[in-house]
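Figure 2 data, in text form.
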Amino acid sequence: MSKLIMLPLYLEVFLLIILSLMFTLISFIIVRKRVSHERVQENHTVASYIFNAFSVIYAVLLAFVVYSNWFDYEKSQDNVTNEASYLSNFYRDTRILPDSLKTIVTQKLINYTSAVLNDEWYSMTEGRTSTLADSALDDLWYTYTRIPVSSIPNPYLYQYSIERLNFISQYRRLRILDMEQTTPPIIWVVLIICGFISVSYTYYFTTKRKRTHFFLIATVILINVLLFYLIYVLDHPYEGYAKLSSEPFQMILNKFTQIK
């Protein structure tokens, strides 16, 4: 399913519009041949009240799901930014180390950041983590926690830097968890059923002018399809053209290598 958002934005939207119009045209021809305008016109008044009530409930549900996915998408971006920020802070903390130890730790830090940027970021587009990044982080932990405290001029700052290293690990775990789809299947089931009902109602409220009726149906179908598409894209923050940027890691990697 993730392959649905691997095409360029303009091409995907264009395909959605074309497919929506094709579906509308085919279903419109079938319905208009079997159901005449006069047959359902007398029930328009009563049906409109029901449809209005349903539309309000459906709109609230759609708004909630879109907002929830957008919030999760923003949270995923925050997790990436926080991980990069703690990497930068940890780098500054390690400047207190003697030159020999500082060079080793800095290289381990560069190895991890490079593994995230050049290997794990690509792996996450396929819904998996990087063993290279796993090993690099473990290596950084092992190296840093084996440093004798007696060789450090400021033991208090060293202890504080361990806490920053914990935060790096924590935000990496959160970043990995963000790969998982956050919209439960039951929500998709409810949305699809409600979307089907909303589209079905548009066939019921017929007009004598077929072109006008077709345009109204196509509008409702297209809106539903685009909103479902938006929810799906927001639900996959590391896939497709709308995936989160790796720029925060690129910036700090440039910093590490320049002043190494």
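Caption note: The chain has a mean pLDDT of 86.
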